[in-house]
Amino acid sequence: MIAVAIVAILAAIALPAYSSYLQRSRRAEVQSFMQDVIARQQHYLVDRRAYSDSITNAPAAGGLGMTVPSSVAAVYTLTMTTDNTVKPMTVSLSAAPKSGTAQASDSCGTLVITQAGDKSADKAGCW
Questions:
Q1: What pLDDT digit, counting tens, does each position of 109-126 carry?
Q2: What's the number of domains the chain is made of?
Q3: Is there a contact between 55 and 80 (Cβ–Cβ < 8 Å)?
Q4: For position 117, which CATH number holds?
Q5: Neighbours of 51 (CB within 10 A)
Q6: Residue 10: its pLDDT value, please?
Q7: Which one-letter DSSP state was computed for residue 98?
Q8: Residue 71 sits in which domain range?
């Protein structure tokens, strides 16, 4: 009985720590992908004098031709906003945790990055 109690106490301590670790890991993965998208946007801008409005469409169709990793798409909703009518042109990419997933309880919330490299989140220190 004592052994069962010790195992239960250890599990009660380890499970939240492991869940937090998984959230940080998923967050790091989406942040890396978002930085790749913004870097690809900069290349697209140099080649075409405008930002792309699609991550997944082929370059011939005005997109970046990138594939969103399934591990990112499963827990985050990516939204890209471009404005090629203003000077300087702007692009912003946001990643919001999907509700109903383990990532939904992440305190960092929605992550945002812009063409200028400005990064923000619902909580400070998440980037």
A1: 999 999 999 999 998 889
A2: 1
A3: yes
A4: 3.30.540
A5: 21
A6: 78
A7: P
A8: 2-121
